[in-house]
Fold:
Amino acid sequence: MGLGALEFLVPRRVPTQGRGLRWPTNLTLGTFNILLTTVALAPVGAAAAAEHFRWGLLHHVSVPGVLAIAIAVVALDVVSYLQHRVLHRIAWLWRVHRVHHADVDLDTTTALRFHPIEALIGQVTFGTGIVVLGLPPEGVVLYFWLSAVDTIVSHTNIRLPARIERAAQWLFVTPALHAIHHSAVLDESNRNFASIFSVWDRLGGSYLAQPQPVRTGLEEFRQPRYLTLPWTLALPFCTAPPPERSPAP
Structure:
């Protein structure tokens, strides 16, 4: 609620599309995905099973509990970064992930706008990584809590003081940094894949920081109908129409 209020008080961009279509769709998707992943609980269940059966790397080396938790947070953030890059690289995965990018504006509700298929893909990816690495349940829970908070914050339409924004970008994914990833320009949207720590983009050669505003969304899916829930759910199976022309600068 606090971040939502700040979006009205200190917005970084003027909203380009009415919230009447975006918010109901994004909030419905978010609620459904939360219920879906809560029922599945694949990552936490995988961590508990790995601990019980001593599966995975960390269960065969001597690592203090606190360090194991820290390793889990870092490792899962790397897994998230790699998965995000794959979602953009493989055509059929991109068709699913483009539901998130098709939002024509960017605010806290965009953090909830993921197709249920992508939510399930994430469960399988993280569950596999957790078992292979033998990550502790406490570290898994902590990571997903931090990731949820950062995902909401990084999609927020708020303007941070320039000094704070520049300093935070060295370690964390900030709203201005992640907004570039939602750019309608392909060369910009294929940057800044990280979830929590921006260092992975620096190491992976996908980091981009620029002060100017970006036009968000996908040009081929700007018609208002693609913001409604039925069309959003159908988006992975739609053939992209010709993109709309960007407005003259």
Remarks:
- Residues 44-236 form one domain.
- DSSP finds twelve helices and no strands in the chain.
- The radius of gyration is 18 Å.
